[in-house]
């Protein structure tokens, strides 16, 4: 690893590196259209963070900060698409990018941050608990769109 490890916001210029990193999250995912990329990066309240080792993107997550009318009008955050390059796992990069996203949510006056995972591996759950998340606070339910017919 180089000595220059940094976390920063990702933008449209980082899409190729981000999509390559996402192959370590969901191998074989179809790439988004250029229009989808533009929509995602233009969406207010949605930020993508990347941890770089020199010029290489090695970990990422995104944070959506959602306006809210409960909790005194304080927003809440949702972290998704947490991924670390397979060659860099177990070195604290994923935890660093998640902690960065959480700090950004607190800076935007969010009252909570939610993260869900489809992973069934207890080691993954323990990782999120080390990042400060609790699995006993809420229960998540998911519904997926029906397959296009």
TrEMBL record:
Domain of life according to the entry: Bacteria
Record keywords: Acyltransferase, Transferase
All copies of domain N-acetyltransferase, residue ranges: 5-149
Keyword Transferase: yes
CDD domains tied to this protein: NAT_SF
UniProt GO MF annotations: acyltransferase activity
Entry EC number(s): 2.3.1.-
Enzyme class: transferase
Presence of the UniProt keyword Transferase in the record: yes
Official protein name in the record: GNAT family N-acetyltransferase
Organism taxonomic ancestry: Bacteria, Pseudomonadati, Pseudomonadota, Betaproteobacteria, Burkholderiales
